[in-house]
Amino acid sequence: MEHLSELILVAVGAAVINNFVLHYFVGICPFIGVSRRVDMAFGMGCAVTFVITIAALLSWVFTFYILRPGAPLAVMVLGAGADLSILSYIVYIFVIASSVQLVEMYVRKFFPPLYKSFGVFLPLITTNCAILFACLEIMKYVAVGKGAEPWGLDTSLVLAIFGGIGFTIAIVIMAGIREELDHCDVPKSLRGAGITLIVAGILSLAFMGFGGVDRSLKDILHPPAPVAAAVDDDNGEIPTTMPAASPDSKPADLTLNTDRRAAR
Amino acid sequence: MASDGPTAGERFLRGLIPENPVYRQLLGMCPTLAVTGGMKTAMTMAGAVAFVLICANVLTSLIRNLLKPHLRILVFTLTIAAFVTIADRVLAYAMYDMSQELGPYIPLIIVNCVIICRCEVCASKQSVVVAASDAAGQSIGFAMALASIAAVREILGSGTFFGLRVMPEAWPNWGIMVMPPGAFLTLGLLLGLANWIGAVREKRSGAV
């Protein structure tokens, strides 16, 4: 139950509260480039979700067993105290590029209709920041220092899948708005990317409305917050940046981060 | 092959305004939006991008005769990833707070389209000098674009410029400008402004 509620919080946090596009600005290029029609936007969203899941799976495996400080395989080969985290960026980009290639070949061979509908987007995805961003987020929670529990595979996959779904939601809404915009009289110099960015700003403003959802959700999932447990959760790292309470889950962390920015 | 196309100096100047990576080519949007909440973060980011762009361009230009066409994108990406790792570690050593604030956006330079685009378009075909000056022009253009957005956002959002107070004390900080929506709105409006200025200039030169 404890674990399940954490998964739910991670999922909601990744999909709507801290939407990849509208909060972290990753994946802006396809968001502007491929959001002209709803069906294309949906295809792109599905392709990204698909690739992001596979990349997250592979990067979790690499991070957990090889790259994080004190990872089992690295220790076995290089001796105690092995820390290969300096290689992580190169490994991630390699994993992403090769998984995109594999997915493309697999889909072309076994699902030709699917390939026809979103195959054109696949090569573009290699340079989509959303994928690398998901890998980096997972690394942040897997390659933790001593004393903190690294994220399991399930939590990482939930983050990746719901991050992809959040991307799909954002890009489909955007495409819907842009289809309507075609009938509007937009000032000439704003046409194209300009008006798209302004609409994205308004969308992002709307998505800020999800800001408190995770905390209320948390209250529903754990009604009486036991004080001792809250103290236990302090692992000495996150609380320094946060004014109050609940340092244990990612969504809370990120929302408070927003609050801090707002306060500044 | 190095002789065709514009010379090194022309390429340098072109990167500044006529082919500005952000306003003209719409490349590298993620860092443009994410780190422009303040001038300090924006300039650190611009410095990191400039370092990676110039190093990657020079190296790509040096190995351009060894590249196999179907593997070139992979080689570019891995080259960039190596330089980004260097930049990331140096930054974490020299400016720890700044590197914490920039967080994932430093590693995300790897997938910054500006760099891959310059490797593909220029560095893989031109000599080292041309590639280096092209990269320098593009990175200064990128820095100028970041600075313009960050200046607007920081002055309106926090009333400061590089952390120094410029607006009167009574200025009500437009909190929204330093938050994500402000980034989208500022970039959208500035892009419109840039297009409008471009159109007016064109009309004027056409009239003369």
Could you walk me through the main structural features you see in this protein, from its secondary elements to its overall organization?
The complex is a heterodimer of chains A (264) and B (208). Chain A is 69% helix and 0% strand. Chain A is mostly helical and 264 residues long. In chain A, helix 1 (2-17) packs antiparallel against helix 11 (213-221). Chain A is globular. Chain A starts with a helix and ends with a helix. Residues 228-264 of chain A have low confidence and may be disordered. Chain B has a domain at 8-150. Chain B has helices at 8-16, 29-34, 39-62, 72-94, 96-102, 113-123, 128-158, 175-178, 180-207, and strands at 160-161, 164-165. Chain B is globular. The mean pLDDT of chain B is 85. Classes of the chains: A mainly alpha (264), B mainly alpha (208). Chain A binds chain B through residues 22-29, 32, 86-87, 89-90, 93-94, 97, 126-129, 132-133, 136-137, 140, 187-190, 193-198, 200-202, 204-205, 208, 258, 261-262, 264, and chain B through 26-27, 29-30, 33-34, 37, 73-74, 77-78, 81-82, 84-85, 88-89, 104, 107-108, 110-111, 113, 116, 158, 175-176, 178-185, 187-189, 191-193, 195-196, 199.
